[in-house]
Amino acid sequence: MGLGKGFTNYGIGMTALTILKSVLNDEKRTFPASSLCQRLGVYIGQPTTIGATGVVDQPTLDLTNHEQELFEKSAQAIKHNFNQVK
């Protein structure tokens, strides 16, 4: 982690702490996180609301048709790469 951009330990630790607090305090905060997109059948980065029970919501992204196509293309690439290492 120390190569390239420099140490990111602090940022990673603070993010983990913030998510943990959301779970422990049932804050239901929304984070950019990878979570299961049921429609596409893949874990992908998207707005994810996290509370005491884990993922409690995935707010819908307001994407243009082009952006939606790119999002779905990314999901397919993730599936393809996952299947390559399975």
Give start-end ranges of low-pLDDT stretches: none
**Arithmetic mean pLDDT:** 92
CA(first)-CA(last) distance: 26 Å
What is the rounded Rg? 15 Å
**What's the SSE pattern?**
HEEEH
Please report which band the strand proportion falls in: under 5%, 5-15%, 15-25%, 25-35%, 35-45% or over 45%. 25-35%
Structural class: alpha+beta
Q: Give the fraction of residues assigned to helices.
A: 40-55%
Shape annotation: globular
Number of distinct beta strands: 3
Sheet of most strands: 3 strands, antiparallel
What count of helical segments does DSSP give? 2
Q: How are strands sequenced across the largest beta sheet?
A: 1-2-3
Describe the overall structure:
This protein is of the alpha+beta class. The chain has 2 helices and 3 strands, in the order H-E-E-E-H. The chain has helices spanning 9-24, 65-85; strands spanning 29-37, 42-51, 54-57. The protein has a 3-stranded antiparallel beta sheet. A hairpin with a 2-residue loop joins strand 2 (42-51) and strand 3. The chain is globular, with a radius of gyration of 15 Å. The two termini are 26 Å apart.
SSE order and pairing:
Elements: H1 9-24, E1 29-37, E2 42-51, E3 54-57, H2 65-85
Keywords, please?
three-stranded antiparallel sheet; about 90 residues; alpha+beta; globular
Task: Give a nutshell description of this structure.
The protein has 86 residues and is an alpha+beta fold. The protein is 43% helix and 27% strand. The chain contains two helices and three strands.
